[in-house]
Design a protein that fits this description.
Length: about 260
Amino acid sequence: MKRTWGGIEAGGTKIVCAVGNSPEQIIKETRFPTTTPDDTIKQISHFFLEMQKEYEIASIGLGSFGPIDLNPKSKTYGYITNTPKPHWSQVDFLGGIKKYLALPFYFDTDVNAAAYGEYKWGAAQNLDTFVYLTIGTGVGGGAFVNGKLLHGLVHPEMGHISIPYFQRGDQKYKNNCPFHNSCLEGYINGPSLEKNWGIKGEKLLQDHEAWEYFTEYLAYGLINMICILSPQKIILGGGVMNQLHLFPLIREKVVKYLNNYVQH
């Protein structure tokens, strides 16, 4: 029986499960919507149980949306905690999967998993301090600092840093976070774009005024990360960032608002 490894990307919108040996050697992959906890856990487990009929799976890495409890000594280790996603608060995600799969697991945030992927195979190779920020259904950040993933008391919540309110004309811009009224995620995630403009982010035209608000808020957020962590690089991913025309606008505003303070 061939030996391989498993991976789970658990996002707020969709789940991706795969087995393989590297990004270039994916043996099997499946994707499905993130629905109720019970249904989602059963679909994840079914995929790997089927794969175990053909392959010896050495271990599984699980990168999950959050917030999550990453402390192995905690009674709620492996739980998704106070998430804004309906029905998922205080769910024993890791424990639920382990009821079906008797395998070693590594558990971390989805953005830390993505950051590690960039470090190992992607745009952060040969760097020791960088930030990976994803902008989609939510906004989350993973960071490498001095060659190690940053965790801390729980884990970084870069999407929930406080951002000053920005308004143009008479347009009142609504923050979409149920926990805070002025955080980065609530201003720029996919649901916020749709709430404010009535159009899904991927359908907004390049010259839509929404992007002026989006890039303004994001630039302020990136400046905070630059000043706190001094990253060698910031990598932007997630569904909203498929709008490639945004990158020059974001870079222009970051440079402008830093105002030559960070000299390099």
